[in-house]
């Protein structure tokens, strides 16, 4: 059974750096073809893909946010960490992590999401 | 910047059939964009329905189907149920990056 859960601060101040952790079970990030991604959703708005990391440490970022994002993995801890610098109120959103596996299949399994509010 | 466009809203009667589409600003959507479809209900995380154009996950109800239609990816719901009222998102793959569509709010009335 694949599960993912996001954790991190619920409130950050403008200009601060956000660090979110995705802790997962039911799969290994050392298995060929497996990836974990981050997606966010501002209140009442659409989903936005942020980043993906694969079993071989290949990393992909949204072009519009690439300069602010870093994604890393700790295979031994079954965790993926996303950092986003220079937070702004427009970054207020629910942040999800999700599992990716297989050709053409993206994000078959999702975490419950964590709401991050950016406010002074 | 690549934009993926979906119908903002659609309405369908219970038992009816409805098709949602997903277009790319780069041109015709092909199987190489690996279209994926997701359903999201209020207060819930998205749920994957379709991957790689037309493949269903083990949990996807049979009334959902995916295809390519007129240069777009399409999600068809046949025999719509009241519980299908939700927001639907498509996702397209652009050689490493992925982009979600803006979502279609499906109302069952």
UniProtKB/TrEMBL annotation, chain B:
- The highest taxon in the source lineage is Eukaryota
Name-wise, this protein is IGL c2508_light_IGLV7-43_IGLJ2
Which parts of the chain span the membrane according to its record?
A: none
Please tell me where this protein is predominantly located: membrane
Q: Where in the cell is it found?
A: Cell membrane; Secreted
Q: How does it assemble?
A: Immunoglobulins are composed of two identical heavy chains and two identical light chains; disulfide-linked.
Which keywords fit this entry according to its UniProt record?
Answer: Adaptive immunity, Cell membrane, Disulfide bond, Immunity, Immunoglobulin, Immunoglobulin domain, Membrane, Secreted, Signal
Instruction: Report domain Ig-like positions.
Output: 1-90
Q: Which organism is this protein's natural source?
A: Homo sapiens (Human)
InterPro entries from the entry?
Ig-like_dom, Ig-like_dom_sf, Ig-like_fold, Ig_sub, Ig_V-set, IgV_Light_Chain
Biological processes per GO annotation: adaptive immune response
Tell me the Pfam families matching this sequence: V-set
One cellular component term (GO) for this entry is:
plasma membrane
């Amino acid at each position: 059974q694949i599960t993912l859960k996001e954790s991190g601060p619920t409130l950050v101040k403008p200009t601060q750096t956000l660090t979110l952790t995705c802790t997962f079970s039911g799969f290994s990030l050392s298995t060929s073809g497996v990836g974990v991604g981050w997606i966010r959703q501002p209140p009442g708005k659409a989903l936005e893909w942020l980043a993906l990391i694969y079993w071989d440490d290949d990393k992909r970022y949204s072009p519009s946010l690439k300069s602010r994002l870093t994604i890393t993995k700790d295979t031994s801890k079954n965790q993926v960490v996303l950092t986003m610098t220079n937070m702004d109120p427009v970054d207020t959103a629910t942040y999800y992590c999700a599992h990716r596996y297989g050709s053409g299949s993206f994000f078959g399994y999702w975490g419950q999401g964590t709401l991050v509010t950016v406010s002074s | 910047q690549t934009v993926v466009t979906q119908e903002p809203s659609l309405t369908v009667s219970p038992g009816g059939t409805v098709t949602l589409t997903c277009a790319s600003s780069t041109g015709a959507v092909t199987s190489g964009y690996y279209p994926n479809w997701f359903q999201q209900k209020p207060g819930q995380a998205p749920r994957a329905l379709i991957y790689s154009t037309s493949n269903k996950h083990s949990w996807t109800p049979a009334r959902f189907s995916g295809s390519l239609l007129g240069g777009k990816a399409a999600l068809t719901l046949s025999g719509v149920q009241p519980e299908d009222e939700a927001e639907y998102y498509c996702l397209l793959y652009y050689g490493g990056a992925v982009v979600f569509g803006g979502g279609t709010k499906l109302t069952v009335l």
